């Protein structure tokens, strides 16, 4: 039988960021008019929309293929699947996915990448522990020790022990935030063995994709003061991804050939 260490290993990382959008709508049921041209008065509707970015790359290489869209998890993960196939993913490949605990994200990754090893970004787990400790009233001086002691045990494969300890604590002093943390740990029980993951050479944080947000979508879509029509976000993001994937020249050559052949 072929060992896991001999198989192609593919790393995928998805993450989201918010982009400010604006729509200008006529004020309904209003007779108000603009003073100069007497046009119907309008109102700006500002919303923050989730733009999702991801990449796939062989785990032992730096070159990656980016994908991204202002769309649902299933569609963006489907793009990621296509990117993974593009770089050589096969049915026998080992796929490692790293992301935060966004509702439905890990489930969608596992659905479209059967057998994938999902790893919960360690910094997000740490944030959850800090928030819970503060809600429980752990004093400021003891916060770090409370969190890091539990992080260390979880990283060493003792997540069930920590869950049992927290359940006991919640039985003694019920706390809604602590109950949420227990559910969170149970949901990601198989994604928290950070010590073992590191030994296998897997990353345990999603910093790579979080940094890519700054250089791919945010460098253009999140400039100071910018607001975007929702319909213009995906076309602009597609251009940014073309550049990030180093497909810019090829794309325009093919586009020109198509136009000339029409």
Distance between the termini: 53 Å
Tally the helices. Answer: 11
Q: At the first level of CATH, what is the class of the largest domain?
A: Alpha Beta
DSSP helix fraction? 40-55%
Poorly predicted ranges:
none
The CATH topology name of the largest domain reads: Nucleotidyltransferase, domain 5
The SSE order reads EEEHEHEHHHHHHHHH
Specify Rg, calculated over alpha carbons. 23 Å
Main pleated sheet? 5 strands, mixed
> Which structural class best describes the helix and strand composition?
alpha/beta
* Tally of strands: 5
- Biggest β-sheet: strands ordered side by side in the sheet: 3-2-1-4-5
The average pLDDT is 92
CATH architecture of the largest domain: 2-Layer Sandwich
In the residues, how many domains can be counted?
A: 2
Strand content: 15-25%
Rough shape?
flat
Main traits of this protein?
19% strand, 48% helix, alpha/beta, 2 domains, five-stranded mixed sheet, 262 residues, Nucleotidyltransferase, domain 5
Folded structure, characterized:
The protein is of the alpha/beta class. It has 2 domains: 4-121 and 205-261, Nucleotidyltransferase, domain 5 (2-Layer Sandwich); 123-189, no CATH class. Helices cover 48% and strands 19% of the residues. It has helices at 73-86, 105-112, 122-136, 140-155, 159-172, 176-187, 194-199, 207-215, 218-221, 230-244, 248-261; strands at 9-26, 42-58, 65-69, 94-99, 117-120. A 5-stranded mixed beta sheet has the order 3-2-1-4-5, with helices on both faces. Strand 4 (94-99), helix 2 (105-112) and strand 5 form a beta-alpha-beta unit. Helix 1 (73-86) packs across helix 2. The longest helix is centred in the middle third of the chain and has 16 residues, at 140-155. The protein is flat, with a radius of gyration of 23 Å. The model has no long low-confidence stretch (mean pLDDT 92).
């Amino acid at each position: 039988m072929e060992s896991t260490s001999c198989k192609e290993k593919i790393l995928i990382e998805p993450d989201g960021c918010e982009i400010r959008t604006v729509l200008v709508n006529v004020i309904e049921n209003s007779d108000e008019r603009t003073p100069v041209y007497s046009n119907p008065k309008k109102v700006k509707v500002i919303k923050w929309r989730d733009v999702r970015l991801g990449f796939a790359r062989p785990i032992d290489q730096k070159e990656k293929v980016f994908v991204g869209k202002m769309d649902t998890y299933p569609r963006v993960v489907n793009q990621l699947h296509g990117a993974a196939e593009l770089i050589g993913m096969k049915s026998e490949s080992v796929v490692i996915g790293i992301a935060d605990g966004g509702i439905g994200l890990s489930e969608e990754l596992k659905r479209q990448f059967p057998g994938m090893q999902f790893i919960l970004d360690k910094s997000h787990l740490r944030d959850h522990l800090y928030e819970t400790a503060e809600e429980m009233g752990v004093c400021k001086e003891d916060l770090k020790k409370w969190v890091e002691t539990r992080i260390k045990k979880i990283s060493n494969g003792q997540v069930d022990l920590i869950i049992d300890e927290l359940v006991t604590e919640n039985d003694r002093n019920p706390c809604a935030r602590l109950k949420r943390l227990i559910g969170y740990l149970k949901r990601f029980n198989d994604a928290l063995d950070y010590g073992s993951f590191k030994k296998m050479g897997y990353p345990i944080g999603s910093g790579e994709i979080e940094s890519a947000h700054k250089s791919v979508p945010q460098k253009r879509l999140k400039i100071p003061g910018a607001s975007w029509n929702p319909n213009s976000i995906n076309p602009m993001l597609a251009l940014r991804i073309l550049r990030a994937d180093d497909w810019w020249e090829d794309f325009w050559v093919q586009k020109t050939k198509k136009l000339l052949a029409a």
